[in-house]
Amino acid sequence: MHHRRAQVQFDVPLPAADYRVYVSAARKLKRIMGRKAPDALNLVIFSLHGRDATGVADDYLDAVRWPHTAGRMVSLCRPAKRPRPVPRIVARARLTGIEPRLPAGRIRLLADPSRN
């Protein structure tokens, strides 16, 4: 069974000047791409498709010239967890290819086979 993705259809009044930008871009692409070039409507759909919320919000803040000091979407994100530091001994061994030595207090003793 073939499932279609859920789609939302809406009408957006676009000022003629903004629409002319897409028409002009479609003409320019037609010179490069020929018959494979998108028309103005497909360019509008392309510019709306596949966006994430952070990108849309930050684009809007840029468009209205919102000051960076007042905040951006990235500043609302939780900080990423810091990676656990790699012990120096292991890091050095990875670089040199030498097996790391355990500190004196952490030496593992091999199990005595006679105890079994």
SSE blueprint and pairings:
Layout: H1 16-33, H2 40-48, H3 53-63, H4 73-76, H5 88-96
3D architecture notes:
The chain has 116 residues and is mainly alpha-helical. Among the domains are: 14-48; 52-79, no CATH class. The chain is 44% helix and 0% strand. The protein is built from five helices and no strands. α1 (16-33) crosses α2. It is extended, with a radius of gyration of 29 Å. The model has no long low-confidence stretch (mean pLDDT 77).
Give a brief outline of the structure.
The protein is mainly alpha-helical and 116 residues long.
The helicity comes to: 40-55%
Strand proportion: under 5%
Structural class: mainly alpha
Task: Give the end-to-end Cα distance, rounded to a whole number of Å.
Answer: 60 Å
> What is the radius of gyration?
29 Å
H/I helix tally: 5
**N-to-C series of helices and strands:** HHHHH
What is the global morphology?
extended
As residue ranges, the low-confidence spans are none
Number of strands: 0
Biggest beta sheet attributes:
none
Average residue pLDDT: 77
Descriptive key words:
mainly alpha; 5 helices
